[in-house]
Every structure is written in C-alpha cells, then in structure tokens.
Amino acid sequence: MTRPHWASLVEDSWNSALGGVLDRRGWAHLMVPLTGYGGRDFVRVLARVVHAPAPDADEPAATARAEQQAYRRGWRNFLTAEVPHQRVTVTLGEDEHEVATDRSGQLDVRLPNPGWAPGWHEVRMRTPKSAPARARILVVDESQPFGLVSDIDDTVLRTYLPRPMVAAYNTFVLPEHARRPVPGMAVLYQEVLRAHPGAPTFYVSTGAWNTASTLERFLATHGYPRGPMLLTDWGPTNTGWFRSGQEHKRASLRGLAADFPGIRWLLVGDDGQHDPELYGEFAREHPGNVRAIAIRELGAGEQVLSHGTPVARAAQHRDSSPPEVPEVRGEDGAALARLLAPLLDLR
Fold first, then answer.
1. Residue 1 counted as domain residue
2. The CA-based dihedral angle spanning residues 51, 54, 60, 62, taken in that order and rounded to the nearest 10 degrees
3. Inter-residue contact 137 to 121 (CB < 8 Å)
4. CA–CA distance, 48 with 44 (Å, rounded to integer)
5. Which CATH number belongs to the domain containing residue 336 in this structure?
6. I want to staple 269 with a disulfide (CB 3.0 to 4.6 A). Which of 56, 129, 151, 278 is the partner?
C-alpha cells in the first residue's frame, strides 16, 4: 500500500505527542541492543530506541532493580515509548555509520562487514541522547554446511499460542521467572550443535521485539544456544492493525536462504500454529537448503488451549515437505532426538 493504514497514522500521532511530553520532562533515550548477524560481506544490526528517565546516579539501587527483572510481569515489556526516525551512530570496528530507526523505533540495517572473521563480535551504538550500548553480532562462516532454525512459542517455551486469553495471560501477567521450557528441547539443540560444530542457531518467531530481552534471558537460563532472534513489530503496520505472523516467518526463512545459500537448515517448530505448513512450503521452494524438519507435537490439552480443539491445527499438512526432505514428529526434545539421530549423525 502506498497510503499507510489509518491505525498506523494514529500510532504515529500518539508516539509523536508522547515523545514531545517526555522530551519536555527531560527524559533521555535508551538503546536496547539486539543480537544481529552477518556474513562475509554484510552485517545486519538490530536494536530499539525508546524513551527512558535520565540515568539513576544511585548505582546500587539501579543494580537491585535490574536483579528484580525476572520477577516483573510481562506487561511491563510493552509499556515503552518508542523513538521513531531517530539518528543512531553505529560503530563497526573502526567504521562509523549514521543510520536511523523506523517509525516504530526499530533499527534494522545492513552495513558492510568491516573485515570481521566468522564468530561473535560487538557493535557499538548510540544516539545524541543515549548512553553508548553494545550489541552482539554473529558472523556466520559461509563455508558452514549446516544450521538450526527454531520457533520459540510452544517449541522451546510453553506459551499456548494463539489462544488469545491464555496467550495474553502468559505474555502479560505471568512473571518472567515462571515461564517454563519444553522438556528436552535444550538438550536436543546441544546434541545437534555438538554433532555440527560452528553451526549457527536462529530463532524465528511471531513474538514482539518488546520481549527480546526477556526471551534472551530465558534461553540462556535454560541452556539453549545463543543466536540471533528474528521477531516482529508489535502494533499497527502500514497494511493493518497487526503484522502477518505467517508472512514474517516466510520472509525470514527466505532471507536466511538468500544470505547463506550454502547452509542446509534443520527447521524446528510445533504443530499448534502453522510451522508444518510454512516449513513444508519453504522446503518445496528450497529443497537444497533444508536438511530436515522437526515438529514438536502438542498434547491434546495443549492443542485445546492453543486453538480450541484437541486435534492439531496443522494435521492436514502432515508430511507436506518434499520426499527428499525428511520430517519427524515427537512430543518433546527426547522423542525428536531419537528420530533425528540417524538423520543428523547424533550420538
């Protein structure tokens, strides 16, 4: 659409008015760094810029508040005032780049790789009104033949999406420390990466960027491998009230295939939403980029909470991948590991 949806115009007006009020009250900016990635020729830098009170000079008090983050309700992640179209200085090694956030305060830019070798690196970023921040960047070895792509909701983290009321409770009300992992999935991922050293891990989800820091802490706490997360903007877009989650995942998978054409991916998801359909579609389009598909099967109770019936929503898409791409299904990480072992040389 050439003309923005009216919902996005309302949101833009609200952000502009709120930003003016907070600026007059002396609020500063907060850079929220997000894990990015890159290849031989590019680096994708991800971050958010939000309004925040001036830094607290009482360092012990600030530390104590940070330690309480795991006990705060999820709704606090969504009470943010984004800074749209804000100039940001990004430093890669010795190279400085002037870039800007989008209308939602999101920074998502591709910049030239300054010569970084495969592995983890740090990018520095700041705005004229923020303290400097550092984000991690994973530069992927383009000779690496294998990689892991994982969904998050109901694949590694129990959320019971997309059932609205249950999802709202888990997202907005449940304290961060009370979230529960899916049994065996972290162990499965560790086994996969032991069998394929140096393989990158990406988390592709319809979750909002507001929850990125919470999700990163959850993944680290429960033993999941580090990796960039590809999430979505929460709120109105130029085409409607909300972004299409299916289209986001579809575009993310295609983007990874374009960025790393030599990698064959293990795609891991669940049958509570549309992962089997989307993964099968991607495998038919790019059979040379998919090593295997692993689908976690939700139990009958989880299926009811997820979408109202005890039958998997994606049952009609069983075995939707092409014959040359194996697909396995199991109730948890241990079941999937047994089925994937002969396919991925797991021990």
1. no
2. -10
3. yes
4. 14
5. 3.40.50.1000
6. 151
